[in-house]
Amino acid sequence: MALNDFEKNFIYDISSRLLSQDLLTNAYFMNSQVGSSLRDMVLARQPVQPLTNPFDEAITGTLRGDAAAVRRNADNVTEAATMMGVAQSGTSQILDALSSMEDIIDKINSGELIASDPSVQADYDALRDQITGIYESTDYNGIYMLDSSQWGTEQINSSGQVYIQAFKDGGFNVTFHAVDDPVSGSSWSDLQGSSLATDLAGQTLLVDDFTSAITTIDDIYQSRESMLESQASSLENQATLLDQAVEARRQNTTSLSVENLLVDLILKDSGGLLDEQG
User: Fold this and answer.
1) What backbone phi and psi angles, to 5 degrees, belong to 140?
2) What pairs with residue 162 in β-bridges?
3) Rounded Cα distance, 47 and 210, in Å
4) How far is it, in rounded angstroms, from Cα 215 to Cα 174?
5) pLDDT tens-digit readout, 154-169
6) Are 55 and 249 in contact (CB under 8 A)?
7) Does an H or E element contain 114, and which?
8) Is 0.70 topped by the overall pTM?
9) What pLDDT digit, counting tens, does each position of 53-85 carry?
């Protein structure tokens, strides 16, 4: 049975494609590791593990490193916010003690208490000593935020500043305000129970001045704690976005091995017997 021209051309084209594939395979892959992997893959003897793309690995590795660094910085800023919170807790307790001292003064003025009563004076002095104990002991991991006499260390400098690593290549200082000497020209030791009987007006003025000074510091700490918490949250969100970028890049990175890519190249140049639909 004679073949027509179309059938002859079809047989010739298929034969040429098969020959080209065979020649390319033998020329480039025979007796090589790549050739061995190709044969194993084509014959399904064993799976061929994809090789990583060093360019993609470099990018995703950098992104992962950036995400980890940003997350560490977020932790640092969160810790700074915690320090501010601890300091604010100390000032809040001092304000409570000052409020109790003011209450004693108000009751003396109203006649409910007697200024010369030793027990009244002792209660007043106990509140003063409580305030001293609060600012002397308010610390975070050995950093005393309220007592300037304990500043000038590796952790907090003599100006009350603590350095926070918050950026990729830097950070900032958080500044604390001392309450051991908050009123110019006056000290906590000026609050004397014995003076209630001799200089009630003077004690009233002192309590008011200390209350005003500590309230200002307390407000500063509250504001900065909130600001640092917000910054830490933003950094954490930034780290999450970087993690998502790593995952997105990993999903978009080809999983074909070098061997897969070479086979595709051969089939692209020499043709295949079947299309994608078979």
Assistant:
1) -135, 110
2) 174
3) 78
4) 19
5) 999 999 999 998 887 7
6) no
7) none
8) no
9) 555 555 666 777 777 778 888 888 999 999 999
